[in-house]
Here is the input.
Amino acid sequence: MRLSYTEIQDELDSSELSALPPLRIAVLRNVVVEPIEPYLRYFAYRIGFSARCEFGAYDNVYQEAVAGQSGLLDADTDCLLVFLKLENLSWDLARRFAALSAERIRQETQRVKDIAAEIAAGIRRQTAAMIVWNGFELPVHPSLGILDYQRSEGETAVVEHLNAFLRDMLAGHKSAYLLDVNACLARVGARHFYDLRYWHLARAPYSLEALEEIGGEIFKYIRALKGRSRKCLVLDCDNVLWGGIVGEDGLAGIRLGQSHPGSPFREFQQEVLNLHSRGVVLALCSKNNEADVWEVFDRHPDMLLRREHIAAARINWSDKVSGLTQIAEELELGLDSLVFVDDSPLEADMVRQHLPQVTVVELPEGRAVENREILSSGGWFDTLSLSQEDRQRGAMYRAEAARREMREQSRDLGSYYGSLEMVLEIRVADELAIPRVAQLTQKTNQFSLTTRRYGDADIARFGASPRADVVHVRLKDRFGDSGITGVCILEYEGGRARIDTFLLSCRVLGRGVEDALLVHCMRRAKQRGCRVAVGEYRPTAKNAQVKEFYPRRGFRSVASGEGTERFELDLTTFDAGEPPHFHRIDVQFPTVALAGAGEG
Amino acid sequence: MTDRERILRVVSRILRVPIDSIGDDTSPEKVESWDSMKHMSLILALEQEFGIRFSDERIVELLNVKLIAEAVGELKAQADSDSQR
Here is the structure.
């Protein structure tokens, strides 16, 4: 529910803000935007921060940014907002465009670009805080009238060009982003976006409605910056994915299709799928007979969502609080990663009461046409970057769920493993694998014998050394490809192979990958002329599970001191075989030049 | 809540002064926090509260609670008669 300006002030005054972590926002501006402050503090409070806003002096952006004339910007600043309004930067471009010569337009455009670039660079000299820069607003009534939009150097085109410049210029700085003010303007509408009275009374151009919209947009960035973005969308079924109640109306009776009254639900599903392709994990939590729901998924011709998009489902008559809790557990996500969509005020309220960490989206009754808009306007899942892994996240979770199901059905572990049809690829890391290998050394905590953190350059150095091998393992099974999920770094010296690093991503634990990797690494060490392998266990707060890893595989403890334990394995008698349950283990190591290998 | 109570509530929240300290003669001269920036917030909040809109010329005259209450009353009466027409 939207709160009024006064209610927001009320809520802020009556909340325990001092208990929340601080968020420092600095504002550089050439117009008056002070009334945005309660909105910023309120949005901060909603994601668990106590915000403090400091405003630079009116129209002093250049001095403060470039000459450093302010105490505004320092190491504690989290986010820096820039409001540079074209009217106060170039009256010519903003208000007397029709009178300008082509040459003058070019000069003035260049001048604005130079100032903006200097300001951004000046800010970056003072602080590493995230910069969110409000773009230039497109003219609502360009001074050349309808002709303007036909011109490649018209007023609209120049503003578009300036915004494109800002976007590229900011992309050249770390953690600097252009806020799409024209999207905010379009949502609110120009008649409500500007307050012309206060533009003239105080050089305050924006209405409260506009400031609320811009504030919400700013917080999409801050939420992502602070890692408060959500990861999983949990959906109710009846009156959310389709209109009507499948248990009563039947497969043919529910509303879902290309035309009214089924089209709003189809469009909603398309938006859900768009989130899925951005890496949002999808789940179902609904009170239905499970078979009814899957029948719609499998047989309804207008369903866009398919079973394979759903990573977890609780379709039963239990309460949604336990359903959501179980979904979070199953997907190994925190409750604060979930967004829950339901049409029932009762269910929504229950979840809000019992699981305040979950974002609850209550779809209004009788207004299905708005559902898509509600889902896309939230920005709950917005991130500042999108990696290949993000895009595939949904598929990975789904594969894990399928494996779990098969495991529950299998009589014993051996037949479970067999049914997975696991294929391992064991390789020496090439250039393409370096970033992922380095990332694993940085992120792996549990199954990690030495927990040495390496950057790309470190891994590349091992890789280039004639006396070392960086070995990685990739696991595929009938449900999907887990990617590179295990690493072993070997260093050879004087007939001894030192296992510098041995780790496995928690994504593939409990499937015997570590045994296959170790066996082939030991064979490799032998091939490189080593007679002894040396392993270490360096205890951390999180890696107790691998304390016995080496002794259980025939390594002999030789020394322990300062927490680190060392083990040795006699390679001359080593003859362990591959674990039997892999469908195939595909090993490709480069050939070793025999002369001198491992002898150094 | 009467209109008067609603006005006092908005004034109290925006200027952050206790509601019972506010009277007809409460004005920028008497309340330290009531500067031009707060005046803008106050006007905008009142407009939002009552769904009304002051003219720019009126805004600069609304310099105590009595004047504000009168202006709110006028604009509301006007809006009511407009909607009956």
Notes: Chain B has a mean pLDDT of 94.
